[in-house]
Amino acid sequence: MELEIDIEQPWDADTDWADLAQRALEALVQVAPELDNERLLASVLFTSDSQVHALNREWRGKDKPTNVLSFPMLERNDLLHLSPDGPPEMLGDIALAAETCGRESVDKNVSIQDHATHLLIHGLLHLAGLDHEISEQDAIAMEALETKALAFLAIADPYGDRT
């Protein structure tokens, strides 16, 4: 899969967010091999809370910012049966909100880089047709994939402290 990445203010210019996104993808394909298809494209927008708020309001009818938005463009079944040969296929778009991501990283006592990596993996799994809001079983399965992918990057289980 190829990632098309756009980084806007207020994301910290000292971090290589494009490299972070690429490493997140490389870890994820180890646990979600359906994403390891050269035909796939996904766009990732590192942007502001205000931009994510506007997208959330317009596309999801929710008048608030959120940490990550995912806009899938392929059905899961189509992804699972996508031939490696043929023209590029747009998997979807992801947008991450800088201020929300920053606040959450402080609240969780993790670096913003680790939290953004988790959110990217989470968003890419949504693009792959997985959804934690369908059932508790789906949530557990999605969280397990996230945790396994993060482990390849030596990032702690973000769900490990749940009781």
From TrEMBL:
Domain of life: Bacteria
Main location: cytoplasm
Names of required cofactors: Zn(2+)
Subcellular location(s) of the protein: Cytoplasm
Enzyme Commission no: 3.1.-.-
Keyword Metal-binding applies: yes
Keywords: Cytoplasm, Endonuclease, Hydrolase, Metal-binding, Nuclease, Ribosome biogenesis, rRNA processing, Zinc
Residues annotated as binding Zn(2+): H122, H126, H132
Cofactor note: Binds 1 zinc ion.
Coiled coil: none
InterPro entries reported for this sequence: MetalPrtase_cat_dom_sf_prd, YbeY
Family indicated by similarity: Belongs to the endoribonuclease YbeY family.
PANTHER family referenced in this protein's UniProt entry, alphabetically: ENDORIBONUCLEASE YBEY, CHLOROPLASTIC
Function comment: Single strand-specific metallo-endoribonuclease involved in late-stage 70S ribosome quality control and in maturation of the 3' terminus of the 16S rRNA.
Name of the protein in question: Endoribonuclease YbeY
Origin species: Novosphingobium organovorum
Lineage, top ranks: Bacteria, Pseudomonadati, Pseudomonadota, Alphaproteobacteria, Sphingomonadales
Gene of this entry: ybeY
